[in-house]
Specification:
The protein is of the alpha+beta class and 137 residues long. Helix content is 29%, strand content 18%. Bound molecules: guanosine-5'-monophosphate and zinc ion.
C-alpha cells in the first residue's frame, strides 16, 4: 500500500533520506524540515493513507501510542515545557502533504509558535441544536 508519487511514502520507506528519530516495521518518525519549534517531528506510517478518514483504526491507534512514547522521551531530550500533537486533514485544515502524519510539536514558554491559539467564538443555541440533531439522525 504505497503511492509511488507520494514523497512521504518515499521518506517513510527510506528511499529518500531523512533525519530519523525512530523506526519500526510500520512507522518512521522524522524531524520536520520546516519546524514550528526546535525538535518538531512527524510520525509517518510506512503504508500510504491520505488522512485520518482513510487510515485503518489499528494503525491510527498505534500512531497515537507511538506519539505518547516519542513525546515522553523527547520532552527530556529537548527540555521543552509542553507539547502539541497536530494532525491536519484536508487543505482547508492546512494539510499540504496528503499522506497521513502526526505533528509532534514541542513548546517552549514564550515561543510564540501560534499553535492552539485560535480566537475563541461562542457556541450558539442554533449550532448546538442543529449539530446534535443531525448527528442522531
Ligand atoms: P501538513 O501541512 O501536511 O500537516 O504538514 C506537512 C509537513 O511536512 C510540514 O510541516 C512540512 O514542513 C513538512 N515537510 C514537507 N516536505 C518535507 C520533507 O521532504 N521532509 C521533511 N522532513 N519534512 C517535510
Ligand atoms: Zn504516501
Amino acid at each position: 500500500m504505497k503511492d509511488e508519487n507520494c514523497i512521504f511514502c518515499k521518506i517513510a520507506n527510506g528511499e529518500i533520506p531523512s533525519a530519523t528519530l525512530y523506526e519500526d516495521e510500520e512507522f518512521r518518525v522524522i524531524l520536520d524540515l520546516g519546524p514550528a519549534t526546535r525538535g518538531h517531528a512527524l510520525i509517518l506510517p510506512k503504508n500510504h493513507f491520505s488522512d485520518l478518514y482513510d487510515i485503518d483504526e489499528e494503525t491510527a491507534a498505534k500512531a497515537m501510542v507511538l506519539a505518547k512514547k516519542m513525546i515522553t522521551k523527547l520532552k527530556d531530550v529537548l527540555g521543552c515545557d509542553g507539547y502539541n500533537i497536530v494532525q491536519n486533514n484536508g487543505a482547508a485544515a492546512g494539510q499540504t502533504v496528503f499522506h497521513f502524519h502526526m505533528h509532534l510539536i514541542p513548546r517552549y514558554e514564550g515561543d510564540g509558535a501560534g499553535i492552539a491559539s485560535w480566537k475563541q467564538g461562542e457556541l450558539s443555541e442554533k449550532d448546538k441544536e442543529e449539530i446534535l440533531k443531525k448527528l442522531k439522525d
